[in-house]
Structure formats: C-alpha cells, structure tokens
TrEMBL record:
Residues annotated as transmembrane: none
Name this protein carries in UniProt: Carbamate kinase
Aspartate/glutamate/uridylate kinase domain ranges (all copies): 10-289
Gene3D superfamilies with a match to the protein in the record: Acetylglutamate kinase-like (3.40.1160.10)
NCBIfam families on file: arcC (TIGR00746), PRK12352.1 (NF009007)
Gene: arcC
Entry similarity comment: Belongs to the carbamate kinase family.
Length: 317
C-alpha cells in the first residue's frame, strides 16, 4: 500500500483515561470512538503522534499476575516495568487496529506504527521518595489495607473516589526510541508510542534497567512535542475547556492563557493536583521549551474542532 504523509501541521496527542476505559472489553469498545476522533485529524491532513495513559491497565496486569502467582503457585510474578511494557502493547494494539480500520472505512491511505517505548528517568529523582501515581482499580479502604498487608505495595486515597495503589512518578528525561519515532513520523506513519509515558528506565554506562514506576503521560508527551518541535501538543481529557473555579457556581472556562497567566492560576490553586494541574504543567513545559508551539487541552470529542481553533483551552509561551 502506498503511504501518504499529511500536508498539515504536526501534533502530539495525549489520550486520557476516558479514551480507554478500564477493562479489555470496555477499552475495545471505547477505542472505536477514540479512533474516529484521531482519524478526523488525519483526514484534515494533520500528522499525528498518539500517546496514551496506562494507570488502570498497568495496575490490572501487575495485579493479575500477583493474584495468580499467589493462588496457583505456578504463574510467575510480573515485574512492574514488564507490566508497563505489556500495557503499551495491549493498548497500542487496540488503538492501532481501530485507527487502521477507521482509515480503511474512509479510504485513507495511511498506516500506523506502534513503538514500545522506554523513557530515561534519574535515580536521584525525589519522586522515588514519595509515590503519587495511582494505578489499577479503585478499592475500598478495607480492601486497600488488606492488599497492602498481602503485597507490601502502597495504597492511598484518590481524591474522594476510593483507594488505589500508588507508585513513584519520576520526571521523564529522554525518550530512548526518539530517533525511531521521528523517522516513522517523518515517513508518514501515525505513530502510537510512549504509552503510559514510556516504561521508566535508568541509563547506566552500558545498559538500561527497568524501574517500577509510572511516568505522567502528559509530561512525556510534552517532552516529545518539544523535542520534535511539533506545532501542537494536544491533551485530550473529559472536559472541553480548562476552567477557573472548577466545579463551583462561578466556574468560568479559559479560552487562552499564556505561561504567566497559567502560573498565576497555579499559584491560586485553580487546577486540581493529580488531574488538571499536571496537564497545565505539561503544557507549560512544552511551550517554554518550544515557544513557537501551542498547547491545547480539550475533550476527545472536540479534538478536531479544537485544532481548527473553534474550542478548547490554548496555552501559549
Ligand atoms: N480547573 C479545572 N478545569 C477543568 N477540569 C478540571 C479542573 N480541575 C480538575 N479538573 C478535572 O480534571 C479532569 C482531568 O484529569 P484526569 O481525569 O486525571 O485526566 P485523564 O483524562 O488524563 O485521565 C477533568 O475531567 C476534570 O474533571
Ligand atoms: N501514565 C499515565 O499518566 O497514566 P494515566 O493517565 O492513566 O494516569
């Protein structure tokens, strides 16, 4: 099949939890719709790199092996970095297949490429002292305390929604497969990569070593968008726009904010830690590293409209 490259701008898209769901069945269903929104962008000539979260999925895989291993005595425990790599493969497979099918239906002659990605993190990152990244399913307090005793894992209460396992979330420093991703992207592939922010690895003199942690995918997407000088970083989540006074009667949507304004809102505590705050911070990291770039936060449903400047929140340098 002859491949075509889009003629429009280049974007790095980060997909949030609502694009994927929590179980293989739910994910398979949801990605059919997610793919339509990605292909809407492709149909407009946009060149897309797709990244995605993996918190629920990496937790599910790790937990399933731990449970089976404890109960049948035959199944091996699955180390956390390997569970992260499995989550990239499984999510990437669903996303890629759904995007390919949607393009086939629309007669678009493009193809996808999945890259299982590693991201270098530093051993002295303070994040290792304080696990904050929720992974896996929501549990009751009782279930979480029992699991913590059984496994030695850390569990924390997650924003009033229940208890979840938490792991360290170190800062991404370098994407190991960066050159391969760039080559595939420049050749016209829709590249699905850096899932879950990439499997975190320490880089030694001669080797790489997987690390039991989960990187924030928006932060890795921002680093990749800056590295590749992508025209836009597009963070897709469950809301059309970022807001001030979120969830209050005087909530007001933000159409555009520059870095100084965003920092002021951060100081005022306008963005919830663990949800909107890391997204706005990721956008700042991107526009400050690549001031010509524009970051967009919007919903999956509004992605193509947001790229046309019709909705969403734009963050500039
Ligand atoms: N100031 C804010 N403006 C808009 N949404 C906010 C704000 N603060 C918190 N949120 C919440 O953050 C959510 C996005 O975070 P999260 O669900 O963790 O992301 P993801 O889509 O990556 O899974 C939004 O759906 C919204 O409920
Ligand atoms: N890795 C990551 O950021 O995953 P979630 O978006 O699922 O938390």
């Amino acid at each position: 099949m002859p491949y075509q490259k889009g003629t429009g701008k280049s974007v790095v898209v980060a997909l949030g939890g609502n694009a994927l769901g929590n179980t293989p069945q739910e994910q398979y269903e949801l990605v059919q719709d997610t793919a339509k929104h990605i292909v809407d962008m492709v149909a407009e000539g946009i060149n897309v790199i797709v990244t995605h979260g993996n918190g629920p999925q990496v937790g599910m895989i790790n937990n399933a092996f731990a449970y089976a291993s404890a109960h049948d005595g035959k199944t091996p425990e699955m180390p956390f970095p390997e569970a992260g790599a499995m989550s990239q493969g499984y999510i990437g497979y669903h996303l890629s297949q759904a995007v390919l099918s949607e393009m086939k239906r629309r007669g678009i002659m493009r193809s996808t490429a999945n890259v299982v990605t590693q991201t270098v993190v530093y051993p002295d990152d303070p994040a290792f002292e304080n696990p904050t990244k929720p992974v896996g399913a929501f549990l009751t307090e009782e279930e979480a305390k029992r699991k913590a005793e059984e496994t030695g894992w850390t569990y924390k209460e997650d924003a009033g929604r229940g208890w979840r396992q938490v792991v360290a979330s170190p800062k991404p420093r370098r994407i190991v497969e960066s050159d391969a991703i760039r080559d595939l992207f420049e050749a016209g592939y829709i590249v699905v990569c850096t899932g879950g922010g990439g499997v975190p690895v320490f880089e030694h003199d001669d080797t790489y070593e997987g690390v039991p942690a989960v990187i924030d995918k928006d932060r890795s997407a921002a680093m990749m968008a800056a590295t590749f000088k992508a025209d836009m970083l597009v963070i897709l989540t469950a809301v059309d726009k970022v807001a001030v006074n979120f969830g209050r009667p005087d909530q007001a949507d933000i159409d555009v904010m520059d870095a100084a304004q965003a920092r002021q809102y951060i100081e005022e505590g306008q963005f919830a830690p663990g949800s909107m705050l890391p997204k706005v911070e990721a956008c700042l990291e991107y526009v400050e590293a690549y001031p010509q770039g524009r970051a967009l936060i919007t919903s999956l449903e509004k992605a193509a409209a947001g790229l046309r400047g019709e909705t969403g929140t734009i963050i500039t340098a």
